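Q: Give me the 3D complex with S-adenosylmethionine.
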Amino acid sequence: MGGIMYQNILIESLDYFGRGIAHIDNKIVFVYNALPNELVNIKIINNKKRFSEAIVTKYLKTSPKRIDSICPYFNKCGGCQLLNLNYEDTLNFKLNKVKELLTKNKINVNNLEIINNENNYYYRNKLSLKIINEEIGFYENKTHNLISISKCFIANNNINTVIDNYKLLNIKNGDLIIRCNSNNEILLIINSQDKLNIDINNLKEKIKLIGIVYNNETIYGNNFYYERIYHKLFKISYDAFFQVNSYITTKIFQELENNLKDSKNVLDLYCGVGTLSIIASNYANVIGVEIIPNAVLDATYNAKLNNSSAKFVLGDVAKTVSKLEIDFDTLILDPPRSGIDKNTINFILSKLPSKIIYISCDVATLIRDIKLLEFKYELISYKIFDMFSYTYHLESFVVLNLR
Ligand SMILES: C[S@@+](CC[C@H](N)C(=O)[O-])C[C@H]1O[C@@H](n2cnc3c(N)ncnc32)[C@H](O)[C@@H]1O
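A: Here is the predicted complex, encoded as structure tokens.
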């Protein structure tokens, strides 16, 4: 079936990754850049036993929901999957995806809503790029072919100014991470085997450069930046996590506060630079746990900076939690995509805090973990935050109460 062309294929719906779903001879075909109810000619590009993938060779009938993508690299670079839909419909896609997954897993929730991203283009404060043979860009979806770009339409303008001027870095091959705060200050993190030859003076004229970290060494300025957000100030080291969408992050902080009014003792697992802990410490005693050493140092520093009593512990959550001799009524979980490990689930079930606030960037592992806790915890509310607009990714904020 590979390379084979098919005509007059009807797209039935969208899959979890924003690809169109069609069926040919009872086999499922995922079609890139195809929307429900569109009629298309396709070419198979990947033929597996249980499914195939295809690209559109001709649109015979297009959906009224289709828009012209703002980005010339859409459907080439692997970054955004939904730039062919108007924004309202990308939100409906995410809402329906969560509804379907909850229904499939027999999880009831009365309060399900989505919070939109007011600035749904140019919102990212961090971008990870490849430089290959002096060209800058992203890998093509599922390959290591570079799609060179001159701009990213979901990254903020300061980041795009760095892309405009990347030649001043004089890097032939390497990885470039650009981080930026709301004061337009830029931190560059570079990993490369090339001899260091950055035109820093020229770069400083183009951007508010506050630091360059080259192969984990600080070669200019600082290896951290500050972000002022939600009336707080956070120091963020070059290798510490911070949410990529600052506007949505303030909405999440607000939501967290709304859910903490009755909390007295909070445990914040996967706490990063201490953002959620410090907000929670307005209401409760808080302990945070985090695995990245610089992030824990930042968190401790940030607590002082914001007059917070929150305390932090360095460690792998899976190995650390059972050693913590603490009682807590509220548990905040904000893990990486892999979700919560078995040890931690058992720890939660042995402690039984009255409330769990689970923030997740991966709906599949979130639902898996809700199922593991379900016999003791009831899902009270589910809010989707559109942290990653025009991509299939979404941020979930769920509240679970002890039954
Ligand atoms: C999604 S981030 C959340 C960070 C923080 N709550 C925030 O809002 O900025 C997940 C964090 O978990 C940390 N992490 C990943 N695996 C971990 C583990 N096994 N134990 C402890 N922390 C871990 C990461 O370094 C990262 O800071």
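A quick observation: The longest helix spans residues 87-104.
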